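Hi support team,

I've been running sequence recovery on a batch of backbones for a student project. Most finish fine, but this one hangs at about 90% for roughly twenty minutes before it completes. I'm not sure whether the input is malformed or the queue is just slow. I've pasted the structure tokens below so you can try to reproduce it. Let me know if you need the job ID as well.

Thanks,
M.K.
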């Protein structure tokens, strides 16, 4: 198995001029997750920490690169990253930001890690909500492990999570390709997959494209739209997404195809994407 593409920070996971801030951080996934949790606060879960976010703070969730995330963190508080910030002083993000910062820290230690886009079954009963987690290579167990770096003790209580979020079961976090295959085979209802008022095969298809991009080290925002993504089920190229789902489900068995998809204009990330939350194109 080739780990080279996931063993060092590249692209958006590269801390760049802030690389020195990672020096001295712990070298295991659990302790690094605690560091991340002390630096970030989830935009939509902030009230559970007694924090009300103004518009300017919420805008931080549109930051894409780790280097820029760290710009904001150290501008606000220049203490070592290992020192947790008060909840109202943390950088605002969503699940993708927790995941990407965790991945960046793991990669700095040479631990193969990648961001995965899919759906969490542990936030709302009977629903699979749009979510991102870390997938890292656990050398001791000789397998890829899913780790939800967002879930701290407060959220574990809030959502009633009983399993170990340092080793998320595959039926609790479903990668996008697996969600697609379950729905296409009739084993799951597409209406259960999505977020807010957005559900269905079209939403799952968008997350497959985002998952493929993340597997190619292009960890986009959950609301970035490009290429073959569509807003209606009847506009989807079903056979094409059937194939993408296979790659998403078993990326290490399809390394060459992953590389080809990165160059495919239907899936590869272009220079400009559409930010669906801000309702405007953005250059990368």
């Amino acid at each position: 198995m080739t780990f080279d593409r996931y063993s060092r920070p590249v692209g958006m996971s590269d801390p760049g001029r802030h690389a020195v801030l990672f020096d001295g951080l712990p070298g295991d996934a659990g302790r690094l997750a605690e560091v991340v949790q002390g630096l970030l606060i989830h935009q939509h879960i902030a009230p559970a920490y007694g924090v009300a976010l103004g518009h300017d703070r919420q805008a931080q969730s549109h930051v894409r690169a780790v280097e820029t995330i760290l710009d904001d963190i150290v501008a606000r508080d220049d203490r070592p990253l290992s020192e947790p910030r008060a909840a109202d002083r943390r950088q605002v993000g969503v699940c993708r930001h927790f995941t990407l910062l965790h991945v960046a820290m793991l990669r700095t230690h040479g631990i193969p890690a990648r961001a995965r886009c899919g759906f969490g079954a542990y936030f709302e009963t009977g629903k699979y909500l749009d979510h991102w987690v870390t997938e890292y290579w656990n050398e001791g167990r000789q397998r890829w492990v899913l780790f939800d770096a967002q879930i701290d003790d407060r959220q574990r209580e809030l959502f009633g999570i009983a399993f170990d979020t340092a080793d998320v079961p595959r039926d609790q976090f479903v990668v996008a390709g697996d969600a697609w295959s379950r729905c296409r085979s009739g084993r799951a209802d597409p209406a259960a997959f999505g977020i807010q008022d957005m559900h269905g095969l079209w939403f799952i298809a968008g997350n497959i494209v985002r998952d493929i991009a993340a597997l190619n080290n292009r960890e986009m925002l959950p609301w970035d739209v490009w290429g073959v993504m569509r807003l209606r089920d009847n506009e989807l190229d079903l056979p094409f997404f059937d194939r993408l789902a296979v790659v998403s489900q078993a990326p290490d068995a399809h390394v060459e195809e992953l590389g080809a998809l990165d160059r495919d204009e239907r899936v590869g990330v272009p220079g400009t994407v559409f930010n669906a939350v801000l309702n405007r194109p953005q250059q990368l």
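--
Follow-up from support: It reproduced on our side and the slowdown came from queue contention, not your input. The chain has a mean pLDDT of 96. No action needed from you.
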